[in-house]
Amino acid sequence: MLRLAGSTKDHDRATGRAPARLVLGLSALWTLVVWLGRIALIDAEAGAWMRSRLLISLLFGAVLVLLWWRVDVVRTRSAIVTLVAYAVWMVAVWGPSLVVTLASGSSLGYQVVHTVLATGSLISAAAVAGLARRAAFYPPTITSTSTAANSTAR
Question: Whole-model pTM?
Fold first, then answer.
């Protein structure tokens, strides 16, 4: 595990984990709040699409919490694929939903609420996709404790 002199906060900043923690934490919180709030809207007549959107989105929210908790694994291939899948899922769910909401004859309050939910989710998707891109294309600045120790010993 990578360790630098100083606090964990210094270590997170030096390795680029602080932005990752922020993006993952806010995206997980947003996703869970949005979709946990929709559980009350599910009734016996809800279709398979509504139930699957809810379940898959909550699973992505839980995975984002796990990645936030273990931010050191964000640079693994499986984590990067998961982050990209989350971003694609949010765009696939909220993009069409936003268009349908704005084109429908729903009340202004309904349109405002769903526009805010869609916009927040799309911003979250963009931030997570950016994090995945950075993790995939830019290697970490410090790779091991021995490298850090060797560079300070010289």
Answer: 0.78
